[in-house]
Amino acid sequence: MPRAPLTAQGSQTLAAAYSWVSPPRGSLGVPLALACRPQLVIADEPTSSLDTTVQADILALLAGLRERLQIAFLLITHNPAILAKFADRILVMHSGKIVEQGLATDVLGHPSHPYTKMLLKSRAQMVHSARAGS
Asked: Most CB within 10 Å of its CB: which of 59, 113, 116, 132?
């Protein structure tokens, strides 16, 4: 499968975006990993400590990379809102075991496993509580 080249501007954008989430000393781990032209990138909670505006920027950047470079992402997150925006398929794990999997629209819209239902309900309650406290 042919790969689109990562332009200098794209590299700078990626480095700038990664600097938002990198440790204080900084790191070029993500741009260096992408330079290897992987077929799969595993992103473990890539937006967990970021505000929603920066989260949206990072997800837009990842989506652009996914399209332009034809990269698959394995996104590990506890945030169903991020999954709804980014994921095609969702796999839910509990205690190291897969308890539910399917299309994102199916899992988020009609969860079948009690653990998935609990996760979605607890997240909705957190959002509701945060809005009520504002």
From this structure: 116
